[in-house]
Design brief:
The complex is a heterodimer of chains A (331) and B (257). Chain A has 13 helices and four strands. Chain A has helices at residues 4-26, 42-72, 85-102, 114-132, 140-164, 167-177, 187-206, 208-214, 218-223, 228-250, 256-268, 272-296, 306-324, and strands at 27-29, 35-37, 133-134, 137-138. In chain A, helix 3 (85-102) crosses helix 10 (228-250). The two termini of chain A are 23 Å apart. Chain B has nine helices and 14 strands. Chain B has helices at residues 41-48, 71-75, 93-98, 108-117, 133-147, 165-180, 192-198, 216-219, 225-229, and strands spanning 4-13, 16-18, 22-23, 30-34, 56-61, 64-65, 78-81, 153-157, 184-188, 201-206, 209-215, 233-238, 241-246, 251-253. The radius of gyration of chain B is 18 Å and the shape is globular. In chain B, helix 4 (108-117) crosses helix 5. In chain B, 30% of the residues lie in helices and 27% in strands. By secondary structure, chain B is of the alpha/beta class. The chains are: A mainly alpha (331), B alpha/beta (257). Chain A binds chain B through residues 70-71, 73-75, 209-210, 212-213, 215-220, 222-228, 265, 270-271, 328-331, and chain B through 46, 49-51, 70-76, 78-80, 82, 84-91, 95, 99-100, 102-104, 129-130, 140, 143, 147, 155.
């Protein structure tokens, strides 16, 4: 019984994510606004397959990162976006593009975005963790506020960098700033993101019991045998790499990393051995579903930006979580 | 049996300096740490648990400095109940108690046994966060009991402070049973009733220094306490004998163990 429930939960998460994948692969909106179900053949179908691969890789990386960050920071509101890591990675890419433009080099694309994204992600995470540290302990409120503010500053930095770019370099960048699922992805970035997602999920599951232990206070976690410092460092870097890989591939995507762990936790429970894989699968499903919704909804101005879809749904969910998070963990 | 020794450690925490001198809590006995608030009880326990590095001297667990011992190796010999148990994830009571064995998997019966000893069998499937403060402290004690091996070290920091008297009495019996089986128990409390029920030995710390170490029967008395803690102790006579009442809470039986 105790062992079966998380397995059943994980299977349910997987089924829901498969439905999202099938919907994205088989349902599109035609030009006259009606929904068309069917497979367009291998040539056109390849765009859909690639989009699904991108959404699943990025969603899984964000979901696993969110689950791990929530446990390590003992905070149900933690996620790569809320902690400013996503926006930090975005700013890293923005300033790298600006630097390339000033230096007269070609705009960095594809896997070349990985390094500046990672630098921005780790810089933002480092700033937030330093800000929230009071007498050696992370203050949960300062952590979230610090993350939101660092994220806002990083986003503003991205906007400034965009404004300073010459107009002919701006177009691609503007779409990227809102997050998008490319139908013709850079294969290097896709492979890097998929590898980061798989690696982080595997690490989180393998170290699941130790992550559980890290949910205790620092002294208690150490007293039950957790080497807290090395584990935190490894996990923070892992989450930074995974987030940076998604940003290099899709741009900054909000709230998937926050929601996926909560969806997974409701079905597979809170133990990290199953939660981290569950959150990865849920993240893959959520981002694919958001991309599918984006294809279907037309409010007059063409397709919605993906970032707008995740921010609207995710932002509302964040507020609901905030209300339920009175003291400590959610009731 | 595991030996814990304070070998004149010096630990500076801002302006506060913890320098208790040479103290060896005995294996097979419960040593109760008493002393005024801010006097160094928690520092002593955190240092014993290897959380603080002494600048001079050492705190030794079986002859090796406890601070630099690998966490898993230390956890096999020593369990800690912190002053305020924290669980930053929505775990059940059973999940939390099972964390005591996170680095050394044990049979599920071991976890159930620890739950039963802390009177938590009925609450095992409840979310930890749905429990009262006193119940959460009992969960932390149960986790330490699950982790603890006979002959190891048990460190308890005000572990019963919010626990109701009947449950506290039951936990005191469990802790004393561990000591009887060979454990070295070091427990801080500001409650003299708990101290007298628990203690074989008493270690008094004030201003970061040891002010007394000795048998409870000699130190937890109305003759010794006023000079140790600066408290007044009054006597109350009843039909069943005499008790001593300390003025900051705590009733001492006439003849503590």
């Amino acid at each position: 019984m105790m062992h079966r429930r998380p397995m059943i939960g994980l299977a349910l998460v997987a089924v829901a994510s498969c439905i999202a994948v099938a919907a994205r692969l088989l349902v599109v909106r035609t030009l006259d606004g009606s929904l068309l179900v069917g497979w367009p053949g291998p040539t056109l179908g390849q765009f859909r397959v690639d989009a699904v691969l991108v959404a699943c890789s990025a969603g899984a990386a964000l979901g696993a990162s969110g689950a791990i960050l929530q446990t390590l920071l003992r905070n149900p509101l933690a996620s790569p976006f809320v902690l400013g890591v996503t926006s930090g990675a975005g700013a890293g890419v923005a300033f790298a593009s600006l630097a390339a433009s000033i230096a007269g080099m070609a705009a960095p694309t594809g896997a070349a975005l990985g390094a500046p994204a990672l630098a921005g992600a780790l810089l933002a995470l480092g700033c937030v963790l330093l800000l929230a540290r009071r007498h050696g302990v992370l203050d949960p409120i300062t952590l979230i506020l610090g993350g939101v503010i660092v994220g806002a500053i990083a986003s503003a930095g991205s906007t400034v960098a965009e404004a300073l770019l010459p107009p002919e370099r701006r177009g691609l960048f503007t779409g990227w700033l809102f997050g998008r699922i490319p139908e013709v992805p850079d294969m290097g970035s896709l492979a890097a993101c998929a590898a980061a997602a798989l690696g982080l999920t595997g690490l989180g599951a393998a170290w699941g019991n130790r992550l559980d232990g890290a949910a205790l206070s620092d002294d208690e976690a150490r007293s039950i045998g957790i080497a807290l410092g090395p584990m935190r460092t490894a996990m923070f870097i892992g989450c930074g790499v995974a987030t940076a890989a998604t940003v290099a591939l899709c741009g900054p995507i909000a709230f998937v990393g926050l929601l996926a762990p909560h969806c997974a936790r409701a079905l597979v429970g809170a133990r990290n051995r199953m939660l981290v894989p569950g959150a990865a699968v849920a993240g893959a499903g959520l981002l694919t579903a958001a991309d599918a919704l984006r294809q279907w909804i037309d409010i007059g101005g063409g397709r919605l930006p993906l970032g707008a879809v995740t921010a609207v749904f995710g932002g509302v969910a964040f507020l609901v979580l905030l209300r339920r998070t009175a003291a400590g963990w959610m009731a | 049996m595991t030996a814990l020794r304070f070998q004149s450690p010096v630990i500076a925490r801002g302006a506060f300096i913890f320098a208790p001198g040479d103290v060896t809590p005995s294996a097979g006995r419960v040593t109760v740490l008493i002393g005024p608030n801010g006097g160094g009880k928690t520092t002593a326990l955190r240092a014993a648990a290897g959380m603080l590095a002494p600048e001079q001297g050492a705190i030794l667990l079986d002859g090796a400095p406890v601070h630099s011992m690998p966490a898993a190796q230390r956890a096999a010999r020593m369990a800690l109940v912190a002053q305020r148990p924290e669980v930053g994830a929505p775990f059940s009571v059973r999940d939390v108690v099972a964390l005591g064995r996170v680095r050394r998997p044990a049979a599920p019966e071991r976890i159930e046994q620890a739950l039963a000893r802390a009177g938590l069998s009925q609450l095992a499937d409840r979310p930890f966060h749905a429990l009262s403060g006193g119940q959460q402290q009992r969960v932390a004690v149960a986790r330490a009991l699950a982790q603890h091996e006979p002959g190891g070290v048990l460190l308890l920091d005000e572990a019963f402070a919010a626990v109701d008297p009947p449950e506290a009495a039951a936990l005191v019996r469990e802790i004393r049973a561990e000591a009887a089986a060979g454990a070295t128990v070091l427990a801080a409390t500001h409650d003299l009733s708990v101290a007298s029920a628990l203690a074989d030995d008493v270690w008094c710390i004030a201003g970061g220094r040891s002010t007394a170490f000795g048998a409870a029967r000699e130190l937890l008395t109305r003759a010794a306490l006023p000079s140790l803690l600066g408290v007044a102790v009054a006597e109350a006579h009843g039909t069943r004998g005499t008790i001593a009442v300390a003025d900051y809470g705590g009733i001492l039986p006439e003849a503590p163990r």
